[in-house]
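Q: What residues go here?
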C-alpha cells in the first residue's frame, strides 16, 4: 500500500511536536541530548492540504513523500536513514532498486526488524536534496544495536546493496528515533 504525505524535517523539537499534534501526523524524533551531529532532529509526516501549517516546522526541509509500508508493525525505536541516490543512477532508477531489490533483502537480513517503511521523496519543496527516508523499527534499542543484522554475512550483503542505489558518502547520518502517532 502506498500513501502520499508531506514530510517536514526540523531541528526544533517543540515545533515538531506541536505540528504533529495539530495535523494528526506522525512524529519521529531523536531525543538524544547530543544531537547536533545529526542532519535534523525530527521528522513529521502527515496528510494535509495546508502547506503553510508545515512551513515553520520545516526549517531543514519539506518534501512530498510516498509512504511504502513494507513490514507493518508498532516499533518502540526506529532507525531513520535519510537517503541520497547514487550519482550513477537517476532518482527513479535508485528508487526502483530500493523498492524492488533492497526491500526484500532488508526483510531477509534484518529478521528482528518489527517494522519497515520507505518514504520515497516524490518532490522536494525546500531543503537539501533527499531521495527518501528508510524507517527500520525494532522492539528495543538493544535489538537495533545488537540484532540489526540476522546473519554473519548480512552486514556485507546489505552494505553492498545499499551502495548500488545510494550515495553512502553523501547520505546523512541516521537518527535513532521514537515514533509517536497523533
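A:
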Amino acid at each position: 500500500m502506498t500513501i502520499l504525505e508531506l514530510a517536514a524535517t526540523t531541528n526544533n523539537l517543540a515545533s515538531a511536536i506541536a505540528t504533529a499534534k495539530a495535523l494528526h501526523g506522525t512524529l519521529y524524533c531523536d531525543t538524544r541530548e547530543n544531537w547536533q551531529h545529526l542532519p535534523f532532529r525530527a521528522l513529521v509526516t502527515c496528510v494535509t492540504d495546508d502547506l503553510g501549517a508545515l512551513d515553520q516546522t520545516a526549517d531543514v526541509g519539506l518534501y512530498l513523500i510516498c509512504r511504502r509500508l513494507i513490514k507493518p508493525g508498532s516499533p518502540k525505536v526506529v532507525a531513520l536513514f535519510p537517503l541520497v541516490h547514487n550519482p550513477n543512477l537517476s532518482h527513479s532508477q535508485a528508487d526502483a532498486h530500493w523498492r524492488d531489490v533492497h526491500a526484500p533483502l532488508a526483510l531477509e537480513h534484518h529478521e528482528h526488524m518489527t517494522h519497515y517503511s520507505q518514504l520515497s521523496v516524490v518532490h522536494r519543496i525546500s531543503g537539501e536534496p533527499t531521495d527518501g527516508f528508510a524507517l527500520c523499527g525494532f522492539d528495543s534499542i538493544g535489538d537495533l544495536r545488537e540484532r540489526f543484522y540476522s546473519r554473519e554475512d548480512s552486514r556485507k550483503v546489505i552494505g553492498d546493496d545499499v551502495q548500488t542505489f545510494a550515495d553512502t558518502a553523501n547520505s546523512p547520518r541516521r537518527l535513532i528515533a521514537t515514533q509517536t502517532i497523533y
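A: Context that may help when evaluating the design: The chain has one domain: 2-181. Strands lie at 2-10, 26-29, 42-46, 61-71, 77-83, 115-127, 132-138, 175-181.
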